[in-house]
Amino acid sequence: MRIRLSRRVTLAAAAVALIGATTAPGVAMASGGKPSSPKPTVVLVHGAWADSSSWSPVVERLRKDGYPVRAIANPLQGLTSDTAYVSSHLSAVDGPVVLVGHSYGGAVITNAAASDPDVKALVYIAGFVPAKGETVGELAAKSSPPIPLVSTAVPGGTDVSIDPDHFREVFAGDVDSTTAADLAVAQRPANTKAVSDASVEEAFRTIPSWSLITRQDHAIAPDVQRFMSKRAGAHIEEVNASHAVMISRPGAVTHTIEDAARSIR
């Protein structure tokens, strides 16, 4: 009896070793011995007057939860060229993608996702969701009062940024004054083509979308966000936050992104 038990234990140990040797690195075993699907890559696209570092608190949380993450440096040179830039980066990502856009970045992902079948979910964070033929400028005009901007002539056009004296009230009302002042100094201006180029795609028609609406937003009015999100048929979540929600409420942003990621099968 002892000999038979010992042989069974030995065979079981060998089977476990064999399973461990043949399981691909990074792929967990689900119940029943079948490997579970790897988590989708989350690709983050910032908007005007920000940069990819603005996603840092969200990136930290997503990585902790096991998601591969990429934060793309959006050029902010015009919807047409920015779409092409983001599309080129998407082509280098293997496997399913959750594509996330903040503010103007929402318009970019609406267009870039249409050419990439690996994008399985769209997430708009206080984002513009333009219809075909619409411009970001037309949608922005629905918000009031208008954003106080500073214009600078540059080769090939005009760049605009938020007047630093008004940055906190417009962009980061729920961020501490020191951080808001730093953001105002570091803000990246956007070329006026970002608001004048017409949208040519509506990826949200075929790709499930989520939208996090910021109720204390003075850059894109909450009612405008709701209008665009409902028109797109997005799953809507809301939070009491400013436009800089990825900095002031990164947990809420992460929650919305992971809701979208869990929908992918």
Automatic annotation (TrEMBL):
Tagged with keyword Hydrolase: yes
Signal peptide: 1-30
One Pfam short name: Abhydrolase_6
Stored InterPro entries: AB_hydrolase_1, AB_hydrolase_fold, Sec-Metab_Biosynth_Hydrolase, TAT_signal
One example GO MF annotation: hydrolase activity
Record SUPFAM superfamilies: alpha/beta-Hydrolases
Protein name: Alpha/beta hydrolase
